[in-house]
Every structure is written in structure tokens, then in C-alpha cells.
């Protein structure tokens, strides 16, 4: 869910299940039409950072869940890197982000 402000998402990116001698986690996230944003962290848990705020969601694809709630379609990608600099293949997941009536969304 988006909020409480338009640059915050009320969720945690959780890579605690990653194994090996991991030194850093690199996250990227995007909507259908947005350029990817992302960040690298030394922690297996982090929050997304929407540095461009509402413009991140411009022209985003939307859907309706089984309860009739509208959401924005997003993709999240994770790459882990070990102490020697070897990087994993990217792992991507589609998620649903509920705008919480922010950024001009009426839902």
C-alpha cells in the first residue's frame, strides 16, 4: 500500500531466505510504464524508496482483485551479490500496489 506519504510504501522487501555469503542485496522496482527505481543495501530487509514520488505511477497499468479493489501492477527484482562480487541471476515477482487514494488515484 502506498502511504502515509507519496514517497513511501507500507511494505518490506524481504530477502532473508537468500543463502550464501551475501554482501549486498540490489532491489529494482517498476510499473508497466515507469523507469525502474531501486537501491542496494547491506540488509536483507528494506523498504522501497520512491524518489520520484507520484510520477513513478504515471500511465501505470491497473487491475482489479477478486474483492473488486483496484491496484497498480508492479514488478520487483532482486539480485544478490557475495563478498567476492559474484552476482545472482535476477529474480522477479509481480506484485499489486494499492494507492491508498494518493497520487491522484480515487481508490
Structure description:
There is one protein chain. With 107 residues, the protein is mainly beta. The protein has one domain (13-97): Immunoglobulin-like. The chain has strands spanning 13-14, 22-31, 37-41, 45-46, 62-64, 70-82, 91-97. Strands 2, 3, 5, 6 and 7 form a 5-stranded antiparallel β-sheet that branches. A two-stranded antiparallel ribbon has the order 1-4. The model has no long low-confidence stretch (mean pLDDT 86).
Topology record:
Elements: E1 13-14, E2 22-31, E3 37-41, E4 45-46, E5 62-64, E6 70-82, E7 91-97
Antiparallel strand pairs: 1-4, 2-3, 2-6, 5-6, 6-7
What structural class do you assign from the helix and strand content?
mainly beta
Q: Briefly, what CATH class?
A: Mainly Beta
How many structural domains can be distinguished in the coordinates? 1
Biggest sheet record? 5 strands, antiparallel
What's the overall average pLDDT, rounded?
Answer: 86
H/E topology pattern: EEEEEEE
Low-confidence segments: none
Beta-strand residue fraction: 35-45%
CATH architecture: Sandwich
Helix content: under 10%
CATH topology: Immunoglobulin-like
Spatial extent as radius of gyration: 15 Å
Amino acid at each position: 500500500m502506498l502511504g502515509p506519504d507519496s514517497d513511501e510504501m507500507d511494505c518490506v522487501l524481504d530477502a532473508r531466505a537468500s543463502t550464501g555469503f551475501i554482501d549486498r542485496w540490489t532491489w529494482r522496482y517498476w510499473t508497466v510504464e515507469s523507469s525502474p527505481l531501486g537501491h542496494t543495501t547491506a540488509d536483507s530487509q528494506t523498504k522501497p524508496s520512491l524518489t520520484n514520488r507520484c510520477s513513478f505511477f504515471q500511465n501505470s497499468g491497473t487491475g482489479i482483485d477478486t474483492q473488486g479493489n483496484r491496484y497498480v501492477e508492479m514488478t520487483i527484482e532482486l539480485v544478490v551479490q557475495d563478498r567476492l562480487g559474484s552476482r545472482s541471476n535476477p529474480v522477479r515477482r509481480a506484485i499489486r500496489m494499492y494507492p491508498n487514494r494518493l497520487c491522484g488515484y480515487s481508490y
